[in-house]
Specification:
This protein is of the alpha/beta class. It is built from 10 helices and 9 strands. It is elongated.
């Protein structure tokens, strides 16, 4: 007889004493154990979670969502669980939907399942629009479609836990994990999930800050994983600018017999950036290739 799969829930939390009790209690109905990472809260978030039977990991100061998720992933790997479910502590996700998010993992047709808010009609227009932009920037797909890459309501198989890590400390960690999962060839699927926006504050971060954090996380990930493509592409753009402004400078000199300083400076500066960027890409590509071969 096959053993019952062990399912745990991980909840990153920062100053969520008003919502954490409900999340912990309702999540406990569907999982074997609940972990709350109290990420430097100044209120009673951790104390409440602990009193309700959750395992609590405390950070002395606020390290960011990425650090909290990394602690959750490490904890789940250490327990050797079959499925890890992550959800936010602010009440946006409904813990009673955990079984539907976990189902693709238990049926073994997915390694990562996302409780996607894009199916929710209650999502405010500005969040829907901003989320779609970030999803396209991330470029992670499930079944050929862009997924809700910013959703923190997810389920991970044991295989995914063994292969996926998180280096980001900020809000870009959700996108980073999916990019790493895609790179490792893991199957990603979406599951319809509700999202509550009744609470006045469903995020501790300004949406503009969130967007920039995610954007630069994706840029950093791409530059590290594909340095020649990233820096080579930038070099090509700078080279084209250098040539365009250089030709304008020569054309102006041929017609009027003098050099337009601004045009010449732009051409030289773009040429230098193109040169530096190209060789940066070559050097990083070489180093990363050598490191991969030594593994």
């Amino acid at each position: 007889m096959k053993d019952k799969p062990r399912i745990v829930a991980g909840i990153p939390a920062f100053n969520e004493e008003k919502a954490i009790a409900k999340i912990v209690v309702r999540a406990s109905r569907h999982v074997d154990k609940v972990l709350v990472v109290d990420d430097g809260s100044s209120d009673d978030t951790g104390l409440i979670a602990e009193k309700l039977g959750a395992t609590v990991i405390r950070h002395e100061r606020n390290l960011g969502k990425g650090a909290a998720l990394r602690a959750i992933l490490d904890w789940a790997r250490g327990l050797g669980v079959d499925v890890l479910v992550t959800l936010d502590a602010d009440g946006q996700h409904d813990p009673d939907e955990i079984p539907s998010v976990v189902e693709p993992i238990l049926r073994e047709y997915a390694d990562v399942a996302i409780g996607s808010r894009r199916f929710s009609r209650d999502m405010p227009l500005h969040r829907r629009f901003g989320g779609r932009i970030l999803d396209h920037i991330t470029g992670v797909s499930a079944s050929g479609e862009i997924v809700d890459a910013q959703s923190g309501f997810r389920a991970y198989s044991r295989k995914a836990l063994e292969r996926v890590t998180a280096a980001e400390t900020g809000m870009g960690v959700d996108s980073e994990i999916l990019l790493r999962a895609k790179e490792k060839g893991l199957k990603i699927v979406e599951v319809p999930a509700k999202a509550s926006y009744e609470k006045p504050r469903t995020s501790t971060h300004n949406p503009v800050y969130h967007a920039f954090d995610v954007f630069f996380s994706v840029i950093k990930f791409t530059s590290i994983r594909h340095p020649f493509l990233f820096y080579g592409g930038f070099s090509a753009i700078m080279f084209a600018i250098a040539v365009a402004f250089g030709l304008q400078t020569l054309d102006y000199y041929a017609k009027w017999g003098r050099v337009v300083t601004n045009l010449a400076l732009v051409s030289v500066a773009a040429g230098i950036l193109a040169f530096v960027s190209f060789f940066t890409g070559v050097i990083l590509f070489t180093l990363i290739t050598v490191l991969r071969e030594r593994r």
